[in-house]
C-alpha cells in the first residue's frame, strides 16, 4: 500500500455506524463519510424547546480516537439557511447550529456540507461564528459538483460545451470561501463528473484548496476482468489532485466489491507516470507553499548553512563559468585586434564582488584555465566569517594562483589596478530585491571604463495568481494582531508555490543594466557624483496590464527574475525559461491586501514602484480591476524595506 | 461683516507676495491662494544636484503667522507625476517633493493642487508619504472643475447635456480621495462653471468634503449699477456650499474692483433665504457629523443630563399623550359595547414601563383628564436615581392622583392587577437597538390578554449613503490601533449627518409588534415559556436591495426608525416622514469596512441580521454590489453588542 494516497468511503445512511466503519477499515479505506444525524431520530420542530433524548445517536458507540480520526461528518442535506423565507432561514439555522455543536463535541476532523448556489451569505456567517467560538474547530469541507447540470439544461446545452455550467460551481465555492475570508480551515471537496471540462478549468481547481475529491462509482467502468477502472482522463485528474494533497472519497452504488475500488486507486497511484529527475523536485520537498522572509545579505551577514545550500547549486556556477570564459575570449580578441603582443598577454584583472566562500573565484580560475589566460583574481567580501574561509583557501588551495582577498564593502573600497571584469551574484528571487543595483553602482569605480560586468543585466517579472492558500498563510504569518496582518500583506515572501493558479502570463517589471549609465542633465551630459562616478537613479516605476482569460480571484503575484550573465549565458527562474536544475532561488509571492474577483475579459492593471532613499529601498504597489482597486501597498516602506 | 463666510483671493503669480497679501486683506479677503514657486526662480534640471539659492523665494518675506493662516500654496501646475513617461514621472516627482517639503517648512494651512484625470495613482502615493512623514501636514486641497469640457467636446455634446462630462470630474476627485483612503485631511476645491448640472449631481457634491469653491470672476455679471452679481442658481449653490462649511475663492481677471466681489458675497450670505424655525436646527447646532456611541439604557443607567435633554422634546410626549387619549377612548367604547356600567366605570390600569423621571406619567395623567377616565398609573423604573425623582413627584406633585412607583426591572417583576395599557419609550435611533423588543416581551406578563401596548409597532430603515467624512471619522474614532479601527467600522454611530449624500431611497429592515405573538410549534400552537408567556423570537434577518441612480461611492447606511404608538399616532425620524420638531433622536450611521464604488444601474444588496443569545443582542451585516462585496461585519458581535 502506498502511504501517499488516503481513501475514504461515503455512506448515505449509517444506521449502524460501528459496522460501517469496521467494513470500511477492513477494505483498507482510511476513513468514512457519514451523516451527523441518525436516520431513526426525529428532530423536534422548535429546537429551543428541550426534548429528552436529543436529535441523534449517543457518542458512546465509537471510541474517541475513531471519532477524531476516522469520521467525516456530513451536515443534513435538507438544511438551507439561505432560503428566501425568513422563517425557514431561522429554523434551519437552529438545526445547523445543533449539528455543528454536536460535531464540535465529537471532535470530528472535518465537517462536510454541500453548496448548492452562490447565495451562501448566511451559511458562511454561521460557520464563521462556529470557527470563532470553537477552541479546536473541525475543518469545513464544502462539497460541490464539478459541473452544474441545471445551468447546462437551462441553456439547452450539452454539459460538455457549457462553459457557464463548469464555471458555476467554481463560483459557488469561490464566493463561499471569500465570505469566510479565505480561511485555511475551509476547503473544497470536488465531486468528479463523468464528463470533464477544458484544461484551463481543471487548472483553476488545482489552485484551490481541494481537500478531497469524490469519485462516484458510476464513473468507473469494468475492465475485461470485471474490475472497476477509470478512464485515462479521470486517472490523470485523480493523480493531479492527490499530488496537490487531496484525499479520495469513493461514493455511490456498489457496482462492484467495494474493496476493488480502493485497490484500483492504490495501484493507479503507484503506477503513475514517472516525473523527470529534476533536482528542484527533491530539493523543494517539504517546502511547498511554505513562506519565508527574503534574505537581506547586505544588512545581515549570511551564515554558513546558507552558503552551504547555495554553493550546492548544480547549474548556477556552470553558467557563471561559461560566461566568464566567453568574456575572457572576447577580451583577448579585442586586444588582438589592437595587434600589440604586450597588451594581449597583459594580466586580466577579475574582481569577484561579494565572493562569499569562493564559488565564483573557483569558476573564474576554471575559466582562466580553459582559456589559458593569465588572471589576477581579487575577491572582495564584507562578511568577516566568509573572509576567513576565503583567506584560508587563498593560502592553501589557490596558493599557486594570483588570488587576493580584500575584506570590505564593495561600495566603499578603492583598488588599483581597475578590473577588466567584475563578477557578482547579488540577486534575490525578484532580481534587484537584495540591492544588487545599489551594490554594483557603488562599486562602479572598481571597473575599467570599457570593463565587463557579469551579470550585465537583470529583469524582474510578475504574473497575477490565484492562491487562497498562500494569501491566508501570508495573512496569518508571525502573528494574529491586526497590525501585523497589515504588514504581512505588504511584503514579499519567498516560497515554493504549488497550490496556485496563474491568472495570466508572466510580464516584465523592472530592468537594471551594469555598468549603469548615469542620469543626464539638460545638456545631455552624464551627471557624476563627488567621486566622479555616474549618478544613477535606481528608482523605478512600471505599469503592467493583463487581460483575464477566465473568471478567477486574484490574491497576489508570483514574482521571478531572469539575468543575462554575459553573451548568451543566462540564468532564469521565470517558469517558461527556468534554468533546468537550478535550485538557488524559489520565486516570491507578492500578496495584495484585498483579493480581487476578476472576470473573463476584464483588465488587471498593476503599478509597481521601487523607491529609494539614502538609507533604504522598498517596493510599493497597487492593483486595479474594473471598479475594484486595492489600497496602496507599503506606502513609504512602512511594512517592508531593504536596508542599504 | 458676517463671520460665517470666509473668502480668499487667488493670484496666478505673486512676484511680490507681501504686496498681494496686503491688498487682499485690505479688501476684506481672509486669505490668498498663491503659487509656491516664485516666477523668477528657475528650477535646476536635475534636482538631486544641489544648487545655491534654491528654487523659490526665501520664507523671510512674510511673518510666520501669515504663512500659517493666510496662505494657500498652489503646487506648480505643470507638474504631472502620472505621466506615461517614466523619466517625466521621476523628474516631476522630485519637483513635487521639493515643493511639498518647502510647504511643510512654511507650515501653510493648505496646499492646493489640480486634478486633471482619474489617473492619480502616483500623485496620491506621494501625498500619502507626505502625510505619513509630516508631523503637522498641511491640508491637501485637490481642485477640479465642475465639468470636463474635454469630455463634452469629445462627445460632440453641449456641456449642459453631457452627463458624462459632469460625472467625469467627480470621478477624478473620488478616485483620488479613495487612493488616499478617504483621509479627512484631504478635501476638494470645486471650480464653479458658468453652466450648472442637474440637482442630483449638485447634491452628490454636497456629500463630498468641499473645502472651498472657486468662483471665477467670469461667471459674475454686472447689475444695473455696474456691480458684479451672480445668477440665482449660482447664488443658491454658493449658499449651499458655504452652509456645508466651504470657503469661497475669487479668481480670474478683474472685471470690476476686486473689493466689490467679496462685498457682494458677504451681502448675499447675509440675505440668504430664511430657514423655517425648526427646533432641530438650533438643537443640533455644533453636533453636525459628530459621532456618538449609542446609549445602552438597559445595561447602563441614564444620567440626569440625558433625562433633561430628552424630556425637553416638544413633540414626542404630545404624541404619546394623544395616543394614550385615543386608547382610553377606545377602551371605554369597547366596554360600553358590553353595556355594563360597572365595567365602563372600572379603573383603567396603565403601567409606564421605564418611567424615567416621569414624562410619560404626566402624559398619562393628562390623557386621563382629557378623557375623564379614572386611571391607576403604575410607574416601573429600574434606575434608582430616577426612582427617587418619581417617588418625590408621587408624594408632592401627584399626591391627589392614583400613582404608584415600583422600582425594578420590567422583565422580572410581577404585578396585579394586570395593565389595560402599557406605555414605554425604549426606542433607540435604529428602533429596536436599545432592546425594546426584549424588554417589552419580558414584561408581557404585566399586560391583560386584550391589553394595549403603546407603542404597538416599530420599524427600522436604512438608506445607502456616501459620506467620506463620516466614514473617516468612524475609522479614526477612539484610537489609532488597527484593531480598534476594525471595531469602529463594525458598530452603529449616532450622528446628526450633514456632509453626506443618499445614494438611494430609505427602505424597511426590521419590524417588531407588541404585544408580540409567540413562536408556533408544528401543530400551530403558540409555544410558551415556564411563566406561560409566549416564547418570542426577536432574531431577524432582512435582505434589502436598491438600484443605483448615479455613480457614487457607498460608505455605509443612514439608519432610522418609525413607530406606531396607537391608532394613527406615529413618531418617526425617517427623513421623508420625520415628526416635525421632534429632537429626541439623531439617526445612526452604519459604516461598511470597505467603501464600495457603485455605478448607475448596479444593484446594491444588503443583508442585515439581528442576532440574539442569552446574554446579548447584536447586528451583523454584509453588502454586495456587482463583483464587489464587503466582509461580514461584526461576526458573533465581536465589535459591538447590546447587553441584556
TrEMBL record, chains A, B:
Residues 457-641 form the PRMT5 oligomerisation domain. Residues 283-454 form the PRMT5 arginine-N-methyltransferase domain. One of its GO terms (molecular function) is protein-arginine N-methyltransferase activity. Gene3D superfamilies: Divalent-metal-dependent TIM barrel enzymes, Hnrnp arginine n-methyltransferase1, Vaccinia Virus protein VP39. S-adenosyl-L-methionine binds at residues 307, 316-317, 381, 409-410. One of its GO terms (biological process) is regulation of DNA-templated transcription. Keywords: Methyltransferase, S-adenosyl-L-methionine, Transferase. The record marks 310 as: Critical for specifying symmetric addition of methyl groups. The keyword Oxidoreductase does not apply. InterPro entries: Arg_MeTrfase, Arg_MeTrfase_PRMT5, PRMT5, PRMT5_C, PRMT5_TIM, SAM-dependent_MTases_sf. The active site is at 425 (proton donor/acceptor), 434 (proton donor/acceptor). It comes from the Eukaryota. Residues 28-268 form the PRMT5 TIM barrel domain. It holds the Pfam family PRMT5_TIM. GO terms for cellular component: cytosol; nucleus. SUPFAM superfamilies: S-adenosyl-L-methionine-dependent methyltransferases. Belongs to the class I-like SAM-binding methyltransferase superfamily. PANTHER family: PROTEIN ARGININE N-METHYLTRANSFERASE 5. This is Protein arginine N-methyltransferase.
Amino acid at each position: 500500500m502506498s502511504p501517499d494516497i488516503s481513501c475514504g468511503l461515503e455512506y448515505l445512511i449509517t444506521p449502524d455506524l460501528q459496522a460501517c466503519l469496521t467494513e470500511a477499515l477492513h477494505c483498507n479505506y482510511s476513513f468514512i463519510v457519514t451523516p451527523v444525524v441518525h436516520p431513526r431520530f426525529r428532530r423536534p420542530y422548535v429546537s429551543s424547546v428541550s426534548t429528552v433524548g436529543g436529535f441523534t445517536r449517543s457518542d458512546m458507540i465509537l471510541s474517541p480516537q475513531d471519532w477524531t480520526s476516522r469520521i467525516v461528518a456530513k451536515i443534513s442535506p435538507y438544511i438551507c439557511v439561505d432560503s428566501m423565507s425568513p422563517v425557514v432561514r431561522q429554523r434551519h439555522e437552529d438545526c445547523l447550529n445543533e449539528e455543528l455543536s454536536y460535531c464540535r463535541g465529537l471532535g470530528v476532523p472535518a465537517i462536510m456540507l454541500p453548496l448548492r448556489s452562490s447565495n451562501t451569505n448566511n451559511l458562511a456567517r454561521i460557520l464563521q461564528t462556529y470557527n470563532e467560538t470553537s477552541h479546536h474547530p473541525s475543518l469545513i469541507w464544502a462539497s460541490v459538483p464539478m459541473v452544474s447540470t441545471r445551468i447546462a439544461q437551462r441553456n439547452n446545452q450539452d454539459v460538455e460545451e457549457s462553459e457557464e455550467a463548469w464555471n458555476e460551481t467554481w463560483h459557488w465555492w469561490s464566493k463561499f470561501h471569500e465570505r469566510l475570508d479565505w480561511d485555511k480551515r475551509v476547503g473544497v471537496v470536488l465531486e468528479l463528473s463523468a464528463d470533464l471540462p477544458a484544461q484551463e478549468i481543471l487548472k483553476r481547481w488545482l489552485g484551490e484548496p481541494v481537500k478531497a475529491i469524490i469519485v462516484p462509482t458510476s464513473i468507473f467502468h469494468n475492465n475485461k476482468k470485471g474490475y472497476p477502472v477509470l478512464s485515462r482522463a479521470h486517472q490523470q485528474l485523480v493523480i493531479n489532485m492527490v499530488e496537490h494533497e487531496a484525499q479520495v472519497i469513493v461514493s455511490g452504488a456498489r457496482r462492484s466489491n467495494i474493496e476493488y475500488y480502493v485497490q484500483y486507486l492504490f495501484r493507479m497511484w503507484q503506477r503513475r507516470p514517472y516525473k523527470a529527475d529534476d533536482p528542484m523536485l527533491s530539493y523543494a520537498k517539504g517546502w511547498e507553499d511554505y513562506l519565508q522572509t527574503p534574505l537581506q545579505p547586505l544588512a545581515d551577514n549570511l551564515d554558513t548553512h546558507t552558503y552551504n545550500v547555495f554553493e550546492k547549486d548544480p547549474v548556477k556556477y556552470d553558467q557563471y563559468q561559461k560566461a566568464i570564459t566567453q568574456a575572457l575570449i572576447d577580451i583577448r580578441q579585442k586586444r588582438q585586434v589592437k595587434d600589440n603582443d604586450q597588451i594581449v598577454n597583459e594580466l586580466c584583472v577579475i574582481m569577484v564582488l561579494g565572493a562569499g566562500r569562493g564559488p565564483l573565484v573557483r569558476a573564474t580560475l576554471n575559466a582562466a584555465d580553459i582559456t589559458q589566460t593569465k588572471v589576477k583574481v581579487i575577491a572582495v567580501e564584507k562578511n568577516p566569517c566568509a573572509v576567513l574561509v576565503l583567506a584560508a583557501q587563498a593560502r592553501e588551495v589557490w596558493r599557486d594562483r594570483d588570488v587576493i582577498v580584500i575584506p570590505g564593502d564593495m561600495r566603499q573600497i578603492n583598488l588599483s589596478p581597475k578590473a577588466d571584469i567584475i563578477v557578482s551574484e547579488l540577486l534575490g528571487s525578484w532580481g534587484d530585491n537584495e540591492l544588487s543595483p545599489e551594490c554594483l553602482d557603488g562599486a562602479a569605480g572598481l571597473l575599467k571604463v570599457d570593463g565587463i560586468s557579469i551579470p550585465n543585466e537583470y529583469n524582474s517579472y510578475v504574473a497575477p495568481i490565484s492562491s487562497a492558500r498562500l494569501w491566508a498563510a501570508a495573512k496569518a504569518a508571525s502573528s494574529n494582531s491586526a497590525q501585523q496582518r497589515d504588514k504581512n500583506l505588504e511584503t514579499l515572501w519567498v516560497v515554493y508555490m504549488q497550490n496556485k493558479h496563474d491568472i495570466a502570463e508572466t510580464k516584465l517589471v523592472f530592468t537594471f543594466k551594469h555598468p549603469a549609465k548615469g542620469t543626464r542633465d539638460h545638456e545631455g551630459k552624464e551627471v557624476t557624483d563627488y567621486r566622479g562616478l555616474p549618478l544613477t537613479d535606481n528608482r523605478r516605476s512600471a505599469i503592467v496590464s493583463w487581460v483575464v482569460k477566465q473568471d478567477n480571484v486574484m490574491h497576489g503575484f508570483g514574482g521571478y527574475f531572469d539575468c543575462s550573465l554575459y553573451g548568451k549565458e543566462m540564468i532564469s527562474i521565470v517558469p517558461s525559461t527556468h534554468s533546468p536544475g537550478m535550485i538557488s532561488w524559489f520565486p516570491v509571492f507578492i500578496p495584495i491586501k484585498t483579493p480581487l474577483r476578476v472576470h473573463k475579459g476584464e483588465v488587471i492593471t498593476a503599478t509597481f514602484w521601487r523607491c529609494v532613499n539614502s538609507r533604504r529601498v522598498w517596493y510599493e504597489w497597487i492593483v486595479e480591476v474594473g471598479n475594484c482597486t486595492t489600497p496602496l501597498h507599503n506606502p513609504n516602506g512602512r511594512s517592508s524595506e531593504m536596508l542599504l
